[in-house]
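worker-3 :: picked Nucleoside-binding protein
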Amino acid sequence: MKFKKLLPFITFTSIALSSSAFAANWSSTALHINNGNQENPFTEQESDTTVYSVQHASGYDYGDNFFFIDYSKDDIDDGYQDSDFYGEWYSTVSLSAISGEKIGAGALLDVGLTGGINVAGDAKVMKYLPGVKLSWDVPGFNFFQTLFTAYIDDSEGVAKGGAPIETNSWMLDVAFEYPFSIGSQKFSFKGHAEYIAEREDEFGNDVEAWILAQPILVWDMGHALQMKENTLLLGMELQYWHNKLGTEVTESVPQIHIEWTF
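worker-3 :: tokens ->
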């Protein structure tokens, strides 16, 4: 792969790592591997696809950071997920922390101001996502958060070999983690679901609103093997994508999920 193609991801990773490392009170970095038969929404052809992801979360005195970078590889040379990269980064400032007073009441723990960036490699897509994150106190959950953002396009477009430029839109995302035990075995149900509203591309075509849900059920295999808890997880992720990438294709893909926290 040429350096020019890698440059946006090197820059993206450097910014995310620098921000995440700044005065971090806690941090967690993990490698995720997912494998399943995913569909090319433009040809509707399925292929065996493996996605390798580096995922990082950290918190500091005034907020938190989260990012992931996916590397996707399928077994069909069709111009879709052929050794492609995709990444997202979000940084949130807690209004409670910067004001010195609790912002929230009842089940609402905190309100944060968030800035996000989504970057896609082959498609030459860049999106900016300024918005608000709400953190909730839901019994039994390690965390439960809702994120409301704009979805602002700054892509290169077809003229520069990328996907069509789109009009701006908005996003709603819900993220959660619920740990539980069965006997001596530890499990977790976690993931996220997002809704991105409809928009138009640079040719005036409708880009359908989509729902992408990625719930994951994992078994703490590391704990079962008397290793440190939450370091080696094995389970299943279901990727449900209604109107995948704004098309009229809907897929529901079970994927083997392996997660190693280091």
